[in-house]
Specification:
mainly alpha; AhpD-like; 15 helices; about 65% helix; disordered C terminus
């Protein structure tokens, strides 16, 4: 099955002949359930044909969603890296996406550090005395108005490590490789992804995207791209189901299950 949609005008100029989050599993799925597959393909390829976002950026969002440390989908990551390169994305842009996909893991601390402080206080747990340390990266973020109060709990717990992390983040978000609007839109994708759904970050970056000039329609396209990646369940499961059905066909020998 070739995943195509008929487009005209500006949409056609932004749409490849084959686009979307699907792989070869779509052909088998169409064989088994053509009506549902056609409807699903129409829905999931919509962001590629609507013309709201350029294809290069759509594919970069696809890389972000699949490579995110909360997802780590190798097939989807390869599919969208290849498509992003074909659409004109550079090595450095894709590498920057992979760096962003790595540091979103900070939300483990955003979630856990406040709970740790609350529970430690509840049982009067003692904390080791710490010498005052310099935190230049954190100080820089404060000075430019980019400090997030959600980082205060883990800064208080381990200022040295927090500054090391923020140094890593500054080298990414301060690179200028993406425009501020693009950075906010990519951050929405990471936080709103169905494998993450981090509400505080999603709200923060939607506010940031609107401030940087993103339209409501552009932000909605990013949210749609999060949703359409749900078909990775079919990309994963349909070939496995086909293989197992073939294994059970009469005449095919099924391997015996022996207790070890």
């Amino acid at each position: 099955m070739t995943i195509t949609r008929q487009t005209t005008g500006a949409s056609a100029a932004n749409s490849p002949a084959q686009a979307g989050p699907w792989d070869a599993a779509a052909a088998k799925l169409a064989e088994w359930d053509p009506a549902w597959t056609a409807a699903c393909v129409r829905m999931t390829t919509n962001p590629w044909t609507e013309g709201v976002l350029p294809r290069r950026f759509i594919e970069l969002v696809g890389v972000a969603l699949n490579a995110a440390c909360t997802n780590l989908n190798p097939d989807g990551t390869r599919r969208h890296i290849r498509a992003a390169l074909e659409a004109g994305a550079t090595r450095d842009e894709i590498l920057m996406i992979l760096k962003m996909a790595s540091v979103m893991s900070i939300h483990s601390c955003s979630l856990g550090a406040p709970i740790l402080l609350e529970e430690a206080k509840a049982v009067a747990a003692k904390r080791a005395a710490r010498a005052k340390v310099s935190t230049p990266a954190c100080d820089k973020l404060r000075s430019v108005g980019q400090w997030n109060a959600a980082w205060d709990p883990f800064l208080s717990l381990d200022p040295t490590w927090t500054d090391e992390f923020m140094t890593t983040g500054l080298s990414i978000y301060g690179s200028g490789l993406f425009t501020p609007k693009e950075t906010e839109l990519l951050s929405i994708a990471f936080d709103a992804s169905y494998t993450h759904m981090y509400a505080p970050g999603t709200r923060r970056h939607i506010k940031g995207a609107l401030k940087e000039g993103a339209t409501v329609e552009e932000i909605m396209e990013v949210l749609k791209l999060c949703v359409v990646q749900g078909v990775q369940a079919c990309n994963l499961g349909v070939p496995i189901l086909a293989e197992e059905l073939e294994r059970l066909r009469p005449g095919n020998s099924a391997p015996s299950i022996e207790a070890k």
